[in-house]
Amino acid sequence: MNEKMEFSQRLRDAMVRMGYVASPSVLEHEFNLRWPGRSISNQAAWGWLNSRSIPTQDKLQVLAEWLKLAPEVLRFGEAVRYKVREHQRRWDESLNHTEREVIDAYLQLPAPQRKVVREVVLALAQVHVPGQG
Predict the structure, then answer these.
(1) Considering the domain boundaries, does residue 89 fall inside one?
(2) What is the pLDDT along the chain (133 residues), one digit of tens a residue?
(3) Do residues 75 and 101 both lie within one domain?
(4) What CATH number does residue 65 fall under?
C-alpha cells in the first residue's frame, strides 16, 4: 500500500469505529461542523477517503480530534507510534544515574559550550573501536 491508501484506510476505519458511515458527504458535513476556516468540498472529502490526497496538518488535527485519535496515528499509523515509544523506552532504560546527571548538566550549558561538548563526544566516538575499552 502507499501512503495515501494507508491514510484513507485509517480514516475510513476511524469513522466506522465512531459510528459514522465512511462516505464523502458524512465526512464533509462532520468536518465542516468543526473546522473554523473555509468549508471543504465534497470532492476534497472524497479525495481523503479514496487515496487521492492527504489533508494538511491543521485539517488533520481537526479530523483526529473529532475521531478521538492522536494526529500522528491517523496520519502515519500505530507502527510509527510504537517505534517512537520503543526508542524512548530503550533510551530511558539504558541510562544510569551518572549518565542522566551528565546529560542534565549538558542541557544547562549555553549553546556555544554545548556545541564544543558535542564535537568532542562525536570526535571520540569516531576514533573509538568497539570492544577495545
Answers:
(1) no
(2) 699 999 999 999 999 999 999 999 999 999 999 999 999 999 999 999 999 999 999 999 999 999 999 999 999 988 877 777 787 887 778 888 888 899 889 999 999 999 999 999 999 989 877 766 5
(3) no
(4) 1.10.260.40
User: Quick one: cell of 69?
Assistant: 485519535
Same domain, 64 and 13: yes
Place of cell 458535513: 29
- Which long-range contacts does 107-111 make (Cβ < 8 Å, 24+ apart)? none
**Environment class of residue 51 by beta-carbon count within 10 Å: exposed (0-12), middle (13-18) or buried (19+)?**
middle
Same domain for 17 and 66, yes or no, is yes
pLDDT value for 78: 84
Residues with Cβ within 8 Å of residue 22, at least 6 apart in sequence: 11, 12, 13, 15, 16, 49
Q: How many CB atoms lie within 10 A of CB 87?
A: 10
Residue 39's alpha-carbon distances to 7, 12, 43, 57, 59, in angstroms, are: 21, 20, 11, 16, 11
